[in-house]
Amino acid sequence: MTVASKLIQDLTTGYTLMVQEATRLRMAPTLLTFMFNHLSGSPSTVDKKMGDVIE
User: What is the pTM of this model?
Assistant: First the structure.
């Protein structure tokens, strides 16, 4: 198993456990997704662009 596939498996398992626990506590789990456009540039340029959008 590669590191990437292990990470995906671990994340999936973790989120599954969180949803199961929330459901057990009678919470209503909600799936929230985001769509985004790729930001080009160096990491510092991308950080600046993201900061500008938040402000």
Answer: 0.53
Neighbours of 19 (CB within 10 A): 14
In angstroms, the first-to-last Cα distance of the chain is 41
Q: Rounded distance, CA 27 to CA 21, Å?
A: 9
CB 42 within 8 A of CB 35: no
Residue pair 12/5 in contact by the 8 Å Cβ criterion: no
Residue type present at position 12: T
Question: Which tokens belong to 44?
Answer: 């510092």
Read off the pLDDT of residues 31-53 as tens digits, 9 standing for 90 and up: 888 888 889 999 999 999 989 98
Residue 27 near residue 16 (C-beta atoms within 8 A): no
Domain ranges of the chain: 3-54
